[in-house]
Amino acid sequence: MSATIHDVARSAGVSIKTVSRVLNGESNVAAPTAALVHAAIAALDYHPNLAARSLRTGASDTIGVIVDSLSDPFFAKLISVFEDRATAHGMDILVASTGADEERARMQVTRMVRRNVNGLLIAPFGPSLTALPEPGVVPTVLIDRHTEGSAYDEVIVDDEAAAYTAVSHLIAHGHQRIGFVGESLRFSTVHHRLLGYRRALDDNAVTLTPEYVHTACWDSDTATKLTKAMLKLDEPPTAIFASTPVTGVGVLSGMRAVGRADVALVVFGDFPLSTVIEPAVTVVDQVPVDLANTAMDRLLARLGGDTSPPTSTVVATQFLIRGSGELPPTDRPMSPR
Amino acid sequence: MSATIHDVARSAGVSIKTVSRVLNGESNVAAPTAALVHAAIAALDYHPNLAARSLRTGASDTIGVIVDSLSDPFFAKLISVFEDRATAHGMDILVASTGADEERARMQVTRMVRRNVNGLLIAPFGPSLTALPEPGVVPTVLIDRHTEGSAYDEVIVDDEAAAYTAVSHLIAHGHQRIGFVGESLRFSTVHHRLLGYRRALDDNAVTLTPEYVHTACWDSDTATKLTKAMLKLDEPPTAIFASTPVTGVGVLSGMRAVGRADVALVVFGDFPLSTVIEPAVTVVDQVPVDLANTAMDRLLARLGGDTSPPTSTVVATQFLIRGSGELPPTDRPMSPR
DNA sequence: CTGAAAGCGCTTACAG
DNA sequence: CTGAAAGCGCTTACAG
User: Of A40, A305, B230, B256, whose CB count within 10 A is highest?
Assistant: First the structure.
């Protein structure tokens, strides 16, 4: 039903090879011939069959994106930027989630490779390399999280330095008892944020209190529970550093549940409503748009034939001071239980 | 480099047709033969070439999703559910955004069709049918918004009824001056939410005040600006109904900017932090998970050969009363300007 | 500058 | 229950 290259060739009175040349912008076609072909293409509303092209060339004009979750606002923002950029280059994007499950991540990579994606953008997790494509199979750029020993370009932020800044900021505002509410240390980002937290304490001669450090807050609800527990300690923290927006929301919820809006808070990662909450939430903004654009730049360079050694690009974060991180420490006595 | 069906056939000592039969689960293969083929497939780590299959069959085991924006939390949630379901059926999803631009929407549909997607899930906008695939080209299900005269299944919510409930709730709590902050009426959803708003006023003998009705809040910032302006009227509204989470966030921001946390608020659509804000925000929850699953059910039915006439499925919403919609009207005098 | 032939890796009739 | 042939719609050498 749809016109094929043969129809165009017949209509233009040339061979299919010439049509193919015009289609692929090859230079060696006489101008009048090219015009004839263009006219035929327009007249027949011809569009090349992508599956046929893909079968022949092994590519697909498609970019695969693999992240933990498609509904997480951070990843959703990355995807949004990837799609804009891909569309501008005539490519489509295929998305897949891993749920931070290694088995599923492996499967998603395999599926993408089988789909002949031109390139892959992956938010890796855990130290394992098995959930990444084998080197040489498909150009790949890793985003947000570092994987030791990978053969790929990566685009990350300096999590440790940003966390260091954030926690130092809390200490500078008089806080000595600072909670750390983090997701799993399986994520290199959370691991480095914890390192930054510890270094800030060390450099300011603040003793680390194990009861204040939580590294298994899988979701908002867990963060809420742990926050409530922390704030009920005999010596509760006067400030909390949340390692991600998801845990940050949980912390806010926990603070609210025990009626403690006076606890200082800094969240790693900006989120909608952060400026509407009272007090507005001080955050480390990872600037996901920059992260995504930089990663896409790398991938496009690789697709363009760049074969230089893998690079590690560190995108700048922004520390946005809004109020919640500047609350003075209160030492209101708490009921013992 | 990768094994082909010929390699498997040779290794198993059968013809490629027999391998193809096994691959596609056709019944008429002798058990011992099938076992031989399976062994060869496993030994060679064979995976069928998807492009070749797609070229031959005209399908691609792929579902296309087209929405306004990939980073909007509502659409991101829908996509997340679509991906889960698609993965469970061995299909991948291709995503594209329209930016609510008809030209771009048309282009995205064309691209998806050219990619031979098995099915399409589209959040349409505006009355135009030109941004939808021509009937018969590809099974399509429309989500969230109604398009008059389309030939496709649709899965929507009863926007008018839900808005009616929300606004009636405000009136029942003593409010007579109720603002409507909406995005464009191009969206059938917003249009119907406005109808529900008007009907609730009518049924309760509340006069509609044109200054309270805004239907061009493209983004949060516009909603903020209009909210601030409304609250500075000589007779400001005592309650506001926001037609979407995006405008709702803008309204909250505007209320905060003029120091009016005492204005009642109901938002159409739940959003993260709605329970953490003080007071917690009363919302009409569209239950995006239900919407997405129902749409996917319809699409899978169509892919399974269902050729019955197009259906319109209305998914139930939930009215979540949390505090912000129950604030009593205050009649604090405002400065005249 | 242009074209005829071959073939990418599958599935679809068709035959036995 | 099994197979040989044809062909989906392109691009890739190769020839002229």
Answer: B230
Which residues in chain A have Cβ-Cβ distances shorter than 8 Å to B281?
A: none
Low-confidence ranges of chain B (pLDDT < 70): 1, 331-337
> Which has more pLDDT, A331 or A73?
A73
List all residues 6 or more positions away from B44 whose beta carbon is below 8 Å from its beta carbon.
B3, B7, B8, B11
Q: How does residue A332 score in pLDDT terms, banded at 50, 70 and 90? A: low
Interatomic CA–C1' length for residue B17 and nucleotide C15, angstroms: 14
DSSP string, B65-126: EEES-SSSHHHHHHHHHHHHHHHHTT-EEEEEE-TT-HHHHHHHHHHHHHTT-SEEEE---S
Q: Report pLDDT digits (tens) over A86-130.
A: 999 999 999 999 998 999 999 999 999 989 999 999 999 877 788
Are A97 and B80 inside 8 Å of each other by CB? yes
pLDDT of amino acid B264: 96
Give the number of A-B residue pairs with CB atoms closer than 8 Å.
Answer: 121
- The structure tokens listed for A330 are 């209160």
The number of C-alpha atoms within 13 Å of B179 and in the hemisphere containing its C-beta is 35
Nearest to A213 by CA among A168, A255, A167: A167
What pLDDT sits at residue B1?
Answer: 65
Cβ contact B55 with chain C strand, < 7 A: yes
Out of A77-86, A305-314, B328-337, least confident range: B328-337
| Closest CA–CA distance from residue B94 to any residue of chain A (Å) | 5
* Measured distance CA(B17)–CA(B22) in Å, rounded: 9
- Classified as helix, coil or strand, B266 is strand
Q: Which residue from A69, A275, A277 is facing B276, i.e. has the nearest CB?
A: A277
Residues 33-92 of A with CB under 7 A from strand C: 33-34, 52, 55-56
Predicted local distance difference test score (pLDDT) of residue B58: 87
Rounded CA-CA distance B204/A299 in Å is 59
Q: Which residues pair with A49 in a beta bridge?
A: none
Domains of chain B: 5-48 (1.10.260.40), 60-156+288-315 (3.40.50.2300), 159-286 (3.40.50.2300)
